[in-house]
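Possible race condition, two jobs.
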Amino acid sequence: ERVFVRHCDPLVDDVPVDDLPITVVAICESDEVLTSLRECAAGAGFRLYPTSDPTRFSALIELIRPDVLVIEVGSQACDGFGTCRELRARPSTSHVPILAVGGADWSEVGDEGIVAGCGAFMDGPLHVDELAPRLRALGTEHRITVRLLEAESVIDSIARIVEARDPSTGDHCDRLARRAGRFGRWLGLGPGACIALPRAGMQ
């Protein structure tokens, strides 16, 4: 089965990003999960690309650049939490929300899922009236994150342009970022804060 995807460019197509359908790539093998996802996509207007093949799942992610990833935990299709860890390790998917679904007892394995990088969990049976708003919320979260990353990149470029105009500043941006990170670690702040401080120092 071939997948043809047309990426809309808001600047060319005059389509605001928020008006584009939420795009979901899912790896699942049970008919129950697949049926629920298809009903949800049809009712809510999402674009759904499901598969049970891990290789195809990876290819779809790179091709489509989805807003949300859905992984059926406990299936034979993939190592659920192992796949989450792999996705979090990739720069292209490190910030894409992951919804883990299936019959797992989340009270027992929820902590493992959080550590692996899952952003949300839903056990079976999946109800469309609960699934649709969850996917929409995760998709919106992803688009906001993308905007912030793009804004951060622009600010970083501006800071380096300003820095380059004054040779006396040296590597001021990088130096400030490194010191901010060390200061955060000295204060005993958590990993998230220690990542945020260097970014703030650059800006």
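Job #2 (started ~2 s after job #1):
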Amino acid sequence: PLVDPSRAVPSAAGLDSTAQSVTSAPIPPAGFVEWVGTSGLVNLAIVFTDVIGSTSLNVELGDEVWGRIRDAHFEHAGNLVRVRGGCVIKTIGDAVMAAFRNAVDALAFAMQLEADPGHPAVHIRAGVHVGQVQVSQGDTFGTQVNLAARVAGKAKQGGVWISDRVREDWLTQSPNQSPTWSKHNETLRGFHGRRFTLWSLPP
């Protein structure tokens, strides 16, 4: 099962380009290889996050200041990922791609990072999807990875967007902790007009 019942459960054009550039990004650190523990097809929850308006911030603040802010955001994101038992696969520009063993921890991480991105100048969007992905050379590939990036890309104004499967898993594990989600019937770029039920929490 994608949700581990033994675990207690105590925010876009930028992501559109992220989905296209996944395979061209630098090889991730060995930490992900150790964390996932295998290659081939694996059930994982994938989270993409992206800083809203990062180019404008970079121009306004300058490379040095923006670099320090981005680093603080990445460090904070990494800490939250580890708290939830996940692993940062890689960063892409100012985006974070992370994996979790189940949808509940993935969504909890996304909601926590959206609420507190690690610096007051930073605001993010996030997307979460869960499914079978191809693990190879310390990275993840496949339709479900691209779908996760497209889900995040729908959060144009920020907030957290999730697939229907993520919401189902969340409701199964955390029926008393479910926030109020808005329902959407959306097409996703590259999926040939197929419509998906997605859910969102506003920023």
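The chain is about 40% helix and 30% strand.
Logs attached separately.
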